[in-house]
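OP here, attaching both records as promised.
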Amino acid sequence: MVPMQDGHYDLKKIRESITSRTRMVFIANPNNPTGTIVTTAEVRDFMNSVPEDVLVVFDEAYAEYVTSPEYPDDMSYLRAGHNVAILRTFSKIYGLAGLRIGYGLTKIEITNMVNRVRQPFNTNSLAQVAALAALDDTSHVENSRRINKEGKEFLYKEFDSIGIKYLPTEANFIYFQTGKDGREIFDAMLKEGVIIRHMGGQNLRVTIGLPEENRRFISALRKVLNR
């Protein structure tokens, strides 16, 4: 286990933890549940020191939500011949979670090995058609990104007003603390008809929703905290 630093992956410590037995390193970027990213410079230093026989897997499920200019171009390492796999999904910004469809980008040698062990018929034809259509639906992605950005800024402002600690996010959710037991807050919010996630201790996570959903969440949270 490599502890995070202020909600961020510590790539230097992860590199120090790699041994001759290490086969793969998984890096969620943005990370779930913190919403944080590792930067271009951090990934560059990490990739320059990782042993050649270690596969580095970047889980980029929330990549389309990222607005930071420091977000790395992991494809560049794949193009340069590194042992890299990049995972993407249509379950998040594209809204196709129920169809269970995603894709991976990697070297053909790795693809051939995966094909030996993967289940047959692991995607269905309807999901494939929907995924292809989603790739062409740029207006939906742009609108979803805009709504998420506006919702994020609204929740930041409200959290600051209430005095809630949170981690700035590059995803479509926010990791936060109210200063009170997270389980109690979760249960109380549930009684108000609002579902958030309890992440242990004081830690909570809320998905950024539509404007009316964000307002309802804040209204319920203020009500719960004022009791």
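Record two, same layout:
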Amino acid sequence: MASPMFPLAVTTEMFWLDMPYLERVRRIADLGFQVEMWDWTTKDLPAVAALGATWSTMTGYIHGDLYDADGGKVMLETARQAVEASKVINCPRLVLHGAELDGSRNGLPFRPQQLTTGQMWLNAYRTLERLAQLGEDNGVVFCLENLNLCVDHMGTPFGKAEDTMALVGTLDRPGVRMMLDLYHAQIGEGNLIDLVRRAGKLIGEVQVADVPGRREPGTGEVNWPAVARALRDTGYTGVVGLEAMASGDPVDAMEAFRSAFSE
């Protein structure tokens, strides 16, 4: 039987949404996957922790923006709250975005930006530097996620994988890495194999979904086994997370994901 090349995780907010949250976590863990969470502020974290699942990522802030100095202060303060929450469930990686996203508007930023200025880059670098220190002091890693700007997250600064790579690579601190989301990268940039090779040691975690449709691997245009081999060849040994909706039966979708990243 083929074995996964990497530890694999599944996002709770995209599977079995008609079930209570704890049951979703239990099902994903029982199938042998690590677990990922978006909004931890609405969850009963002690009850979640009692399930004994292995957690991979959760959102690393509540409010704030990287590109704005005042927004950076807010992001840092709420990131401190996220760090304390992560300790309850022993979650090692906390996800960041260039701007605070509004879940009620399908992930659009509260304050869309059409132009990213030099001052915005400087503000982002300074805030990430403080977040890196926070992560290093507490044994967690903040992961800056790339987002596509033409379908899902228009107006989000530093959305491109090239942008997150530039920020994380220039900072080069163990407390801040990339959340390399290959679904978003395929929509906005493509050339995924070259991208994973260049990102290399900057990657904190990888997330996947096929394009178009944001379904499990095998439903779209990406050659996931080839991407998986390229990722392995860089020396990456971290988690690959499925942040996708199931095209049919959720268990079948998870098994297709497992197969795509196995050898």
